[in-house]
Amino acid sequence: MKNTKRNELAVCGFAAVKKLEKNHPEKITRLYFTQERAPLFGGLCRQLAKNHGIYNMKPAEDLERLSGTVHHQGVVAMIQAPEITPLDSDITDIWIERGENAVLLDRIGNANNFGAIVRSAAFFGIKNIVIPLDEAQSTITTSSYRIAEGGMEYVDIYSVNSTARLLEAMKGLMFRLGTSLDAKKPLGDLHGLAALAGNPRKPVLVVLGNEENGISDVVKSNCDELMVIPWSGMEQGKPSQIDSLNVAQASSIVFYEVMRAAKGK
Question: pTM for the complete prediction?
Fold first, then answer.
């Protein structure tokens, strides 16, 4: 939940607040917790007191009002609303120089899915996430922060005006991997592709599509390869019993295969 008057964002959920405390305690301006959680935030309270921050014990109902959710898990930290950095060529040049992979989201609209993708990206060491400036795209919210389970502290999120233009600009510089249900090549073949074989430093730009329609046609046309997560019976030409995986579930499989390909396995 965003406090527009103070330009603050409520971060709730035990794991999310604990990771925030560990990595960026200076971001926290106010901290509220239930009596049960109080013993677990003594160090942060002392630091807030030293920096003239505010902390207070509150009943669960007040935390629900502050965070806008019943899933606050007994703690709410208020931070300045994050500003998303516009992506530019200086940033992508660093990715290419360092061989850093990145994720491009093509209108992922559900905040919980966005948070889960952030969590998976952080787990697999992918710290660069790009989102379009589009009303259909979810962004950093209280819900996505909580679902990320601390992952927000380990990723950098950037914005672009056009996903297609970014893909065009990365042609030949990054391996642009799209996921699509109508693709013919299984994701497990990723590590054998000539574009990556023998070149573990070539970064991969993973494109994940929207929950209902997947990646758009214009985005598909700007990918180097479209691949599909194989299902039981795919090799025998049998259709899947379920239409598709949730995009957040799919992201974990894709990120694992990207990591495996980078290691040449």
Answer: 0.90
